[in-house]
Amino acid sequence: MPDEPRVPVLDPAVAAALERVRAAFAAADYTVGGVRGLLGAVAGGALARDEIVPALRATGGGSPLEVFTRLFWLQVPVPVDAVPACDLAAAGLAVADGGELRPLLHVEPLESVTGSGHAGWVVSDLKVRPGSGRPVSADHVVGAGGASASLARLVVHSPVDNVLDLGTGCGVQALHVADPAVGRRPGRITATDVHPRALRLAALSFALSGLAGVELAEGSLFEPVEDRRFDLIVSNPPFVVAPPGGQRRTYRESGLPGDEFCRRLVVSARDRLTDGGYCHLLANWLDVAGEGWRERVGGWAAESGCDAWIVQRDVQDPAEYAELWLRDSVEAGAPGYAERYEAWLADFERRKVAGIGFGWITLRRRDGGVPVVRVEELRHAVDEPVGAYVDGVLSGLVAAPEFSTGWGKLRLADGVVQEQVGPPGAADPERILLRQTRGLRRVAGVGTVEAALAGVCDGTLPPEPLLDAIAQLLALDPSQVRAHAAAVLPELIADGFFTVVP
Questions:
Q1: Where do the structural domains in the chain lie, given as residue ranges?
Q2: Of 102, 194, 255, 406, which one's alpha carbon is 20 to 30 angstroms from that of 437?
Q3: Which class is domain 111-131+138-392?
Q4: pTM for the full model?
């Protein structure tokens, strides 16, 4: 058995002070919605680009919301007598410096993935903004960002009992999982991280947000939870592919070569899942000469033994990728920037890397049956949150191969419309398209048989008599129509255009 992991425990006085801070934040409406309304579109857009001057101009009125926004989001000192009495110093969030209160940590409200509620507050290290003259430190604990929001929107909305947030950082995913607006209602949440300081800040986030009972444990990958299983695993892991040597930042780089950390996480997840349990993670993967990214990441999924849905959402060339993460750590323009940039490019050249992909990986353990793996690229906008319908996506992937041998009843999926393309007035269209107006918003070119079936299948009849009627209407051989349908329908089911009715 491994050594007992260290678990941070908040001092009762700090926990009590955090309760008072939470009440003050709530009274001031220090939420994403409150701050968004305060700043307006112009200042809010500038702040998203790490430009704080417009936001400073918009928050000079002295109201509690303006004071909290300036102190904890913009990270500028405020007069001590302007701050509502709530023991910020006792909570460890700020310190008095002369007649001013100065932030010690970045405290940011978290919006529900539904877009219509408040999920809590996250406590992280102070942001290092461009122009500060110093890079991000190796032990920096990052706050909520675009990647964490992307993962939170992917996580299945089904009720779960036992949840693992692997690599919790400041606790963002655990707070999203526990968000009552989503309806998961977890009975137990375990949050792990290799970084003790991250666990300490996660404990502050949970206490400040009123989330009690989260188990915290230190360790890498699944080491702290060996021999346990979970209904849901979420992970925003240290997926950044960085060159060896130099300073490694714990929040984004594992120290393992290439994309090995993500591979290990994928192939070992099944043993930590209950039957029907989900694992969601973000990942980077390499597109290596002689081994395409689909084959590479698909091989991880096949080795996992789980049903898998892998989606590439973005891809960058080696130079773009190096520039992105050098900006992230605020190294651009700092001493040694050119040498560090050169090291990234040299490492990618040595590995014969043509591109680096970013995307989602969803795994589902399913005891019994042959696992299905879908690897695809979706670069267009999709309906969010994906977690509201990800279970249906996986179920469609499983039903598709089974349909070709069982001919279950079908119905056209909700939100699918038909479009015809051709010259105006032509008797027959050049192309027929089925288009999803919701969800993943796919488009599929289809023939007259599939289009006709889409117009009549409502889940009440099996496809055979419908296909026979279509064959008669189109003056085609019924056996050929059935053979054609058997060939094309599984892919349309997997893509979500048709749903198999139990």
A1: 111-131+138-392, 404-501
A2: 406
A3: alpha beta
A4: 0.93
